Amino acid sequence: MNTAPAASSASADEPRWLTDEEQRVWRSYIEAATLLEDHLDRQLQRDAGMPHVYYGLLVKLAESPRRRLRMTELAMSAKITRSRLSHAVARLEKSGWVRREDCPSDKRGQFAVLTEEGREVLRRHAPGHVDAVRQAVFDRLTPQQQKSLGEIMRIVAEGLQPSGAGADLPWLR
User: Fold this and answer.
1) Residue 29: how many CA atoms within 13 Å on its side-chain side?
2) Sign (positive or negative) of CA dihedral 153, 86, 41, 120
3) Nearest residue to 49 (alpha-carbon basis) of 97, 13, 9
4) How far apart are CA 3 and CA 173, in angstroms?
5) Which of 116, 143, 154, 167 has CB atoms 3.0–4.6 Å from 162's, for a disulfide?
6) Looking at residues 100-120, what average pLDDT do you find?
C-alpha cells in the first residue's frame, strides 16, 4: 500500500521533492541511525575490542545450526558485501573467534564457524551490548512506539531487497 503523498503539480521532469515534514522525518532518521551505530560501535570497541559489525557476525554464527554458516549466507544475513565479510572473518580468525572450513560439497565454498573462544567472547559481552541497545532505543520508546518502529523498519528493509534477477544487493557484490 503506497501512502506517500500525491505528486505535486510539478512537471514530469521535476523530482518529487520531499515535503517539509518528510524532510524533517528523513533528517531525524539519518541523525538517529548515525548516532546509534556510533554509540554501539564505541561500546563494543571499548568493551570487547571489536566493531559492531563483527559482533553481529558472531551473533549470527552463534544462532546458526552447529554455529556455522556458508560465507555467502553469512554475507546475506549480515547485509554486507562479500569482500567486507572476507576481511571481517579474517580479523575474527586472527582473534581466534572464528575459523573457516572448506565446504565438502562445493570446492569453492567455505563455512565460517564460531569457535569456543568466540562463543565465550559473546557470552561475556552480550550483557553490556544489550544494555547499550536497551538504553539507546527501547527505554526511550513506549511499547506501541517499539511495535511501530519494528513494522516500519520491516517495510523499508523488504522494499530494499528485490528478489528479481540482477538485484543490486551488498551480498551479491
Assistant:
1) 10
2) positive
3) 97
4) 32
5) 167
6) 92
